[in-house]
Amino acid sequence: MAIQNVNSETAIPMDTGKAEPAQTAGHDKKAGEESLAPQKHRIMGRVSYLLAWFGGCVSIGTFTMGSSIVGTLNLVQATVAIAIGCFVIGIALALNGAAGYKYGIPFMAQARAAFGFSGTRFPGLVRAVPAIVWYGFQSWIGAGALNAVSATLFGFDNLVLFFVLFQFLQIGLSIFGFQGIKWLENVGSGFILLALVYMFWSVINRYGDEITANLVNMEGTWGMPFWGATMLFLGIYSTMMLNVSDYSRELKEGTKPGLLTVIYAMSILPCTLFMGLIGLMVSGATGVSDPIQVFSSAVDNTPLLVITLLFIAFAQVTTNVLNNVVPPTYILMDVFKLKFRTSTILVGLLAFCTFPWELVKEESSAGLQLFVQTYSAFLGPIFAVMVVDYFILRRRKLDIDKLYDENGPYKGVNYGAVIAALTGAVVALTFSSVSWYASLVPAGLTYYLLMQYWQPCQRFRK
Q1: What's the pLDDT at 62?
Q2: Among 24, 301, 429, 443, which residue has the fewest nearby CB atoms (within 10 Å)?
Q3: How many CB atoms lie within 10 A of CB 454?
């Protein structure tokens, strides 16, 4: 059967298989009115979309990534590595978000073409479980920062209280859906940028001589460690490369792929560059790998300490609401047919169950690192499968009716996609220093060959 190209004006079926009226162009989507059905009404323009990604891509782990390349790369090499990583991210996001942008479909609907209705549980779990874990972890970090500000300025110290209040604040913000996300990220971007500039200037002002001696004048390398560093910085956002369609479906139509790539890259680059270089410079100058520890010990500069702590707290909110709430919320909506707000509240409550106060302990670091390495090994392969499926096998044409028909050709599991993803994961674990790069070709090629020549995969080609 020929693949049908359904444009954005086509009547839209609901994700449950029952008919649902399309969102009309004149319908202004209300806060929290989210569904898995394709949508016509998009709420973000280009500037708003760029600012949303800017605010949502602030990862405290970027400080640590910068610290990890001390003694390997000089300041120029580190800057170039970060820029390359962000450019690769931009390309990857534009590629995998193309289906969501064109058809208005979320990640879980897009994945049905490659993995099947039941098979989407696999990429869904790979994306949702880490998101919930990091939701709880980062909420604890943010609450700790607020508690430190309170203790510094007012002498009130109660971390558990701040954690509970902080988590319920994020749940409250999340139930407004993309309308709330849009304004939170857009307004928050200004504070985040100013805070990063102030922190960057403070580091240079305080450690300028050490930075020149230890980072500017060192030789460094442009070899494999340099390319490994580019993967470090793109790896921070590798989870978002899977479910980017959840966001691209909110961008108003009319943006070409090249410009969209630039929007992604330029939204991620400033925060990644500032935070990566701050981590590199602080560690290179002081020998301490945790920049926050250095800022916290700067008792002679209370404004810097408070700004840094507020930045940390605010960054957890903007990152959690965009990156760690939306993916598992949509996945719960798909699997259990829940409403958006119910799923959002459930995700927030599940974050409590990750016991983040245990995860932050020193003795938990080895287990947490193993967890990160394990799920990260699947991110590149799943990304490769979805890109090959959409661009090469389906030539950017999807039959939306079939994607929302639980009894259609995509019923069940496409084991070809699962096998390809597992193949890529094995390669990723074998070449851990460049795992994301190394896993793409094996996973993509395996999927293409299985879809072409393995009989059980043939019905998924329809």
Answers
A1: 86
A2: 24
A3: 12
